[in-house]
Design a protein that fits this description.
With 637 residues, the protein is α+β, with helices and mostly antiparallel strands. Helices cover 30% and strands 19% of the residues. It contains 17 helices and 23 strands. The strands form six sheets. The chain has a six-stranded antiparallel β-sheet, with no helix packed on it. The protein has a six-stranded antiparallel β-sheet with strand order 15-13-23-22-19-20. Strand 11 (181-184) and strand 12 (187-190) form a beta hairpin. Helix 3 runs antiparallel to helix 6, helix 4 runs antiparallel to helix 5 and helix 7 runs antiparallel to helix 8. It is globular.
């Protein structure tokens, strides 16, 4: 493909300089140049010639793979009445590491709806530095033969965890389509969603589909897989939760032949402009811990909210409470762990921390902007898995040799709009107050708190980054992970040096807030065992109709009591209550803006803006000014 004449426009609205495609920063203003690769979906879309440009902004890379060469512009957004066609993508946003999200639409037929092409962002791609050789990740079927036994079961485990969410959105047929199932190292990633046509797919059909993989299964797990497929096809496994429990048996048997070393490093800094550090972390900052498998250890990052040192009190009280609760609730050895109960225990620990802060607020008669609170994101690493729990907009990222995935979803207004199926994420970011938090610890009783807990299996080297928004704002993690974090996995940098460097990046590139990070490094070595994996069906509750594990990942629709002390959210909940969820995004934005102006300054605000929204980077200060104005009106930190 000849693309020397094609350029990538700077997203800075005051620059818009035309840069070579391979450049990472604008030649004129040094703004980062995001590479937004997209997958085009539509019955009327046929693969185009590489090098051609569609709609004056989308460069055809390879068949249906496009590159947005004007990333500073908002993509064309579907009409409100057309959102039903893409609502499954929106409601499945908590599963972003597996499922691409809608970027926008591409109209190829002079405004005719039937020629609108859906553009999906972050599809499963192998991105080549030359851009021209970018291609799809390998299919599950093609990658299957070369995978280890633990990886093969792990891939099935991921599909089992996706089954119930996709059933709920009428797109479970996706998991029975080999062309759509791609793998990126450890992760199963879906190319797109396929809608169920007539009958809802069954677990029996899933068993038939998996049976096609049997011939190339590793010998030590082939009998196990055969039994699982048989149980599925005969209806003995009646729920995805039962299937997950059986696959967990296989993973647990194989994990004994996996040697895992875990290092945890934390660091916190007040930043160049803040007088106080209202963040907190556990273990305490500048601590390096090497964790043995039998010694459970937590990593926690909290970002305090509230003036007059309230944020610092809240974040430290949360950590003190959660650590104590986890020590009492979590089994000492991995053999005693029930994953579903453990997820519930972690959420219970967070709820207890919430109540401790809320009680102190009440005892000190803190009201309005004086009420203190905190976000929290924490990781509990085990031998072959990690448990992540969070509330607020402090984030967790999963970095592998292949990619960096944000695995938590901010508890903010923009994300809520997407989860409810009302707007695309990039559209929701345009609304006033889009970065305002909808929940944090300490603002109300735990009965109205909804922590999110997730479990991930680890069968290869990985780094998990927990961070406050002092680093994650303006997509700094996505911008720097390859140069700053990835070297840990190749032993080119120590975890301590990387942690210190991330603080520097936050302070120099952002610099508007406190910053706190925790790094959890998994060093994994696996050898194929001379062992035949077995199934014990007696341990499985085969009659379970719902998936208890999935309940932790689903985003619950909060009621109005959720918004106590978060005044900017009231218009949204009023919309839900009176049944006006389908009003236009513009009207919603205006209502939010008016409410923020009229109400007391209490809403927690924390912009978490992707690069497409950052049209003014270094040299313009527009986003910083907006953040400053918002903080003056909300009292955050």
């Amino acid at each position: 493909m000849e693309n020397d004449a094609v350029t990538l426009c700077c997203p800075n609205e005051y620059c818009q300089f035309a840069n070579p495609l391979t450049h990472k920063f604008c030649e004129k203003c040094s703004t980062p140049l995001p590479k937004r690769y997209l997958w085009a979906v539509g019955d009327d879309f046929s693969p185009r010639d590489p090098g051609s440009i569609l709609a004056d902004r989308y460069l055809v890379i390879n068949k249906s793979i496009l590159l947005d060469i004007k990333p500073g512009l908002l993509p064309q957004i579907p009409e409100l009445e057309d959102l039903g066609k893409i609502r499954p993508y929106l409601k499945l946003i908590p599963y972003r590491p597996h499922i691409p999200q809608v970027y926008g639409i591409l109209n190829l037929g002079h405004g005719q709806p039937e020629t609108e092409i859906l553009l999906l962002e972050k599809p499963p791609l192998i991105v080549d530095p030359s851009i021209t050789k970018t291609s799809l990740c390998i299919s599950l079927d093609d990658a299957w033969t070369e995978a280890s036994s633990i990886r093969q079961i792990h891939w099935l485990w991921q599909l089992a965890n996706l089954w119930q969410p996709l059933i709920g959105q009428g797109v479970a047929s996706t998991l029975l389509n080999g062309d759509v199932l791609r793998v990126e190292g450890v992760l199963v990633r879906l190319l797109e969603l396929r809608f169920d046509r007539e009958n809802t797919p069954t677990l029996s059909q899933l068993g038939e589909f998996w049976q096609q993989l049997l011939k190339n299964a590793k010998p030590n797990i082939a009998p196990f897989m055969q039994e699982v497929c048989k149980l599925l096809m005969e209806g003995e496994i009646k729920s995805s939760s039962g299937l997950i429990q059986i696959l967990d048996q296989g993973l647990k048997q194989l994990a004994r032949f996996q040697t895992t070393t875990i290092k945890i490093y934390t660091k916190t800094d007040s930043g160049p402009v803040r007088q106080r550090n209202e963040d907190a972390c556990y273990p305490p900052g500048d601590t390096l811990m090497t964790k043995l498998p039998q010694n459970n250890a937590l990593a926690i990052v909290c970002d305090g909210i509230g003036g007059h040192e309230g944020g610092s009190v809240a974040s430290n009280l949360a950590i003190e409470t959660i650590v104590q609760e986890v020590k009492e609730l979590i089994p000492v050895t991995d053999d005693q762990i029930n994953p579903s109960m453990l997820l519930s225990h972690l959420e219970q620990a967070v709820a207890t921390g919430n109540d401790k802060i809320s009680q102190q607020n009440d005892s000190e008669h803190r009201q309005g902007r004086q009420r203190m609170g905190t976000t929290v994101v924490m990781a509990l690493p085990m031998t072959h898995e990690i448990y992540i729990t969070h509330v607020g907009d402090s984030r967790a990222y999963w970095i592998t040799r292949h990619n960096c995935h944000q695995i938590t979803l901010d508890d903010d207004v923009a994300s809520r709009e997407v989860r409810l199926g009302y707007a695309l994420y990039r559209e929701a970011l345009q609304h006033s107050g889009s970065g305002s938090l909808i929940q944090a610890l300490g603002m109300s009783k735990s009965s109205s708190l909804h922590p999110t807990s997730q479990r991930y299996i680890i069968d290869e080297d990985a780094v998990f980054l927990l961070t406050s928004d002092g680093l994650s704002d303006f997509d700094r993690v996505e911008e720097c992970w390859q140069s700053e974090i990835l070297p840990i996995l190749s032993d080119k940098k120590s975890i301590e040096n990387v942690g210190q460097r991330l603080i520097e990046v936050a302070n120099t590139k952002n610099g508007h807030d406190n910053v706190t990070i925790a790094l959890v490094h998994y060093d994994v070595k696996y050898s194929e065992p001379d062992l035949t994996v077995t199934v014990d069906i007696s341990q499985v509750l085969a009659d379970t109709e719902s998936d208890p594990l999935d309940d932790h990942q689903k985003t619950q629709v909060m009621t109005e009591n959720k918004t106590v002390k978060f005044s900017a959210l009231l218009p949204i909940f009023l919309v839900v209550i009176v049944g006006l969820g389908l009003i236009s995004g513009l009207l919603l934005a205006n209502k939010l803006k008016q409410q923020v102006i009229k109400s007391e300054p209490q809403t927690t605000s924390s912009p978490t803006t992707p690069a497409s929204q950052i049209q003014t980077e270094e040299g313009t200060g527009k986003r910083e000014q907006e953040r400053g104005n918002r903080e003056q009106g909300t009292g955050k930190r």
